[in-house]
Design goal:
The chain is of the alpha+beta class. The chain has 9 helices and 26 strands. The chain folds into 2 domains: 142 residues, Immunoglobulin-like (Sandwich), CATH 2.60.40.380; 328 residues, Purple Acid Phosphatase, chain A, domain 2 (4-Layer Sandwich), CATH 3.60.21. The strands form 5 sheets. An 8-stranded mixed beta sheet has the order 13-14-15-18-20-19-21-26, with helices on one face. A 7-stranded mixed beta sheet has the order 12-11-10-22-23-24-25, covered by helices on one side. Strands 1, 4, 5, 7, 8 and 9 form a 6-stranded antiparallel beta sheet that branches. β7 and β8 form a beta hairpin. α2 packs parallel to α4, α3 runs parallel beside α5 and α6 runs parallel beside α7. The chain is globular.
Length: 541
């Protein structure tokens, strides 16, 4: 289909009992007086577009592929971009949703217009679908069909689903490694969606300034065929990190640059645009509530100083410092405390768990005015930089008896798992758990980068020693892996959550993921159980 001229009003139809493609086009009025095609005629119905095989390029004009995201009980959001058109030319796009990959039975469809103002991206909120099921979707423009993608609807809010199974991760840098972690995730059985916690792209700290600069980042990343396959097969619940802006972004960044970066992200991701707010929530029936929080655009500047016993490092304890901003912090607290779901699973772009490198609590014998949990801390842009806010959130959960909260986090390029207490050194009740995913491609070879002069076995032995040291400095930390890359699969039922850390060699284009760590969390605020797999890697407590 070509450019819409004169009448650019989006149209949509739904048909619970289904319709054919020809019936969809007739219902949409394609070829009617209000729609003029670039070639001056209505294109013949295209043959059914087959699913691509690995490394098959997506057809022009859909070179960026397709995405679906944020499953809701009645539908979801689907996305694409129309490439290979003149910059100023609006292009009409037909979208359709079917119950089958051959699109024999279409249940919803409509028209949209891809405009230069939106970078020729198209984002559709699909509604009126049945809850808790899979569908297929695709787009058509300029007489060509996109590949087919899969979308998922969530269970109804009052439903009692038996299971939620999803994966999460972040940090997909372009380097000498392969996007094989993405391929492995698409091959995981029965995933409902992928929670992507940011660094979908990596901005240049100096060169990425304008809206055009940021748009080009997403287009460059989507040249990766394994990423496009990943996006088409797995619905995504996306959040930004600093890679989508620039390294170390906070609320005091240059306004024009922040606006350009956030606009490009909203254009490029299958998320709703509600007043420019990225934080939001979704539910999986009565089984789980899933708030996804923004730990970047609202935050006060990070603290680089490792020593938290004196200024400026001790500023991390100031009551005035916030990572979430007042509005989001209140929203998150109320959301967690009011949730009636069996589990609360929070997507946070940075780790919640304390990450202390050296425990200095012994100095309290000589210096009584030390701040709580004294020590030297890793500079990781995490919640360690906003201690009062983290403590307040965990204290409110403890006070209300809300124990079954799990944070799915990332950003560090390092895998961790921790139990969370209001005071990590006091041994009080466990109020939650933090599972930190490693990177998917970023920093692919820690051994060579930092210990390259040593034989590989000796370097790995040193990493294990370092991991053991850090575990001993943090009473709540149960696992640390400084070396491997991959993602985490979380299997959620009413009785337990089992989290499996899938690790993969990103330098091997034929690599397969295996399970390097495994944990079980049961309701009631107990310690997570370490279930060591056969090929366990990293260090455990």
């Amino acid at each position: 289909m070509g450019a819409l001229v004169g009448d650019e009003t989006p149209r949509r139809v739904s048909a619970p009992r289904g319709m054919t493609r020809r019936e969809l086009l007739r219902a949409l009025g394609v070829g009617a007086p209000g729609i003029v095609l670039l070639n001056g005629c209505v294109p013949e119905p295209s043959p059914e577009h087959p699913l691509p095989v690995h490394d098959q390029p997506d057809p022009a004009p859909f070179l960026d592929g397709v995405m679906a995201g944020d499953p809701q009980p009645d539908g979801t959001i689907i996305w694409t971009r129309v490439a290979a058109v003149a910059d100023a030319e609006p292009v009409g796009v037909i979208w359709s949703v079917a119950t089958d990959p051959e699109f024999a039975t279409i249940v919803a469809g409509g028209t949209e217009v891809a405009t230069a103002e939106r970078g020729h991206t198209v984002k559709v909120r699909v509604t009126d679908l049945a809850s808790d099921r899979w569908y297929w979707y695709r787009f058509e423009a300029l007489g060509v069909a996109s590949r087919a993608g899969r979308l998922r609807t969530a269970p109804a809010l009052d439903a009692q689903p038996d299971r939620l199974r999803f994966a999460f991760g972040s940090c997909q840098q372009l380097n000498d490694s392969w996007f094989v972690a993405h391929r492995a995730a698409t091959e995981e059985p029965n995933l409902d969606f992928f929670l992507h916690l940011g660094d979908f792209v990596y901005a240049d700290d100096r060169a990425s300034q304008t809206l055009g600069d940021y748009r080009n980042l997403y287009r460059r990343w989507r040249r990766e065929p394994l990423l496009r396959d990943f996006n088409a097969k797995l619905p995504m619940v996306a959040m930004w990190d600093d890679g989508e802006f620039y390294n170390g972004v906070d609320r005091f960044g240059p306004p024009a640059r922040l606006t350009a970066a956030s606009r490009a992200w909203f254009e490029s991701m299958p998320v709703a645009e509600i007043g420019g707010r990225a934080w939001r929530t979704m539910s999986w029936g009565a089984l789980a509530d899933l708030p996804v929080i923004d730990v970047r655009s609202q935050r006060d500047p990070a603290i680089a100083e490792a020593d938290r016993t004196k200024a400026p490092g001790s500023d991390a304890y100031l009551e005035s410092r916030s990572q979430l901003g007042a509005e989001q912090a209140l929203w998150l607290r109320e959301r967690l405390l009011s949730s009636a779901a069996r589990w609360r699973i929070v997507g946070s772009g940075v780790p919640v768990n304390p990450w202390r490198l050296v425990n200095l609590e012994f100095l309290r014998l000589f210096q009584s005015d030390l701040p709580p949990n004294a020590g030297l801390y890793a500079s990781a842009d995490g919640w360690d930089d906003y201690v009062a806010e983290r403590t307040g959130l965990l204290r409110s959960l403890a006070a209300e008896g809300v124990h079954d909260t799990v944070f799915a986090t990332a950003h560090t390029h390092i895998a961790m798992a921790s139990d969370l207490r209001v005071d990590p050194d006091a041994g009080g009740p466990i109020v939650g758990h933090d599972l930190v995913a490693p990177s998917m491609t970023a920093d692919p070879d820690v051994v060579s980068a930092y210990l390259g002069d040593l034989p590989r076995d000796a370097a790995r032995s040193l990493l294990r020693i370092a991991e053991g040291w850090v575990l001993n400095q943090n009473p709540g930390m149960r696992h640390l892996n400084l070396e491997d890359q991959g993602y985490v699969v979380m299997d959620v039922t009413h009785d337990e959550i089992v989290a499996e850390y899938r690790m993969i060699d990103t330098f091997d284009p034929n690599a397969e993921a295996d399970t390097a760590a495994r944990f079980r969390i049961v309701p009631g605020g107990t310690r997570m159980e370490v279930l060591r797999p056969t090929h366990a890697r990293g260090s455990f407590r």
